[in-house]
Amino acid sequence: MTLSIDQKQTFLRNIWYYAIPGRQLKAGQMFAKQLLGEPVVFGRTQGGEVFALRDICPHRAVPLSCGRLHGDEIECAYHGWRFDRTGTCTLIPALNENQDLDLSKFQVRRYPVREVQGNIWIYMSDRDRGDVEPTHEVPMVAGFEGDTYQAVVTMNFPCFIDHAVVGLMDPSHVPFVHRAWWWRTDAILTPEIKAFDPSPYGFTMRRHRLERQTFFYQLIGGDAEVEIAFSLPGVRIEQIVTNTSRVANMTVITPISETETEVTTLFYTTIGWFKPLQPLLIPFIRTFLGQDREMVVKQQIGLKYNPPLMLIRDADTQAKWYYQLRSEFIKSRAEEREFINPVKSQVLSWRS
Fold first, then answer.
1. Is 4 inside a domain boundary?
2. What is the mean pLDDT of each run of 10 residues along the chain (352 residues)?
3. Could you write out the DSSP letters of every residue in 62-74?
4. Structural domain boundaries enclosing 346
5. CB burial string 280-310: b at 16+ within 10 A, e below
6. Looking at the structure, do residues 208 and 87 belong to the same domain, yes or no?
């Protein structure tokens, strides 16, 4: 049985997206970035508070990131207009003292942001105003509350977000794409039977023991058990528990534009030797992620002809769930009602 996929390329709104690693934004600095096709400037005050504004001055459209950060305010490089972290104009130097002008009328869009576990998240709403507050919290890596990541790798994929997400959750590509001496050296397929349950804005593969204990899993303690959770818009959290340690990998997918998507993978762990050996481990992580990117690059060759994409059961059921979750999220927001998770508890089987 197959399922034809023909989805319009639209971004999910009114939801949290991963923005940048917290360490990338120092106190008193700004960082400009495009997200969902929108220019955004992030700033961190001297007190450590993070804020985000639309990176366009409403006066002459010069990017605010070209200016300077004065305490809690951004000064435009062109005429010195200043905006506080709420996006409100506080100063127009060209005005004479006798010119009475309501500066609050000059607003720059503000984006809600949260900094959690070393990560900065941004709430991308469907409104231009900055008074929209999120009704749900940002994703968290359970078991590492209050901790920050110990390793991070970011890579740009030349594709729309849907293709990056579906590739991320694909369970049957591993023996063909990720062949390496430290992961898998053969394409011998074995039966996989996994149980899934619905979870907030997504689904979770129940914790289970890994039958194939690769070199990597033996390195972190052996006898590994794994739980994998996915949630919209593109957050995958894998929890690995071994005899001696715990490792969590959070991979987040952020759309930059309709043709560019950023994939960031972060590691949290109780392994003492992980941090000092990070310079040796990062190349392996980049290689693994780069193998996925290489396949996406190849995929773009065929996608130029806009072919119908076919999904099979059960290997592609997670991809099918993603499109269902995405569709329901859009409908629930448009109808201003509660999100109803379309995923039901069930067991899937495939070969990988």
1. no
2. 56 96 96 98 96 97 96 96 96 90 92 97 84 84 94 96 94 84 69 96 93 62 86 97 90 97 96 83 90 95 90 94 96 94 97 87
3. --GGGSEEETTEE
4. 151-351
5. ebeeebeebbebbbebbeebeeeeeeeeebe
6. no
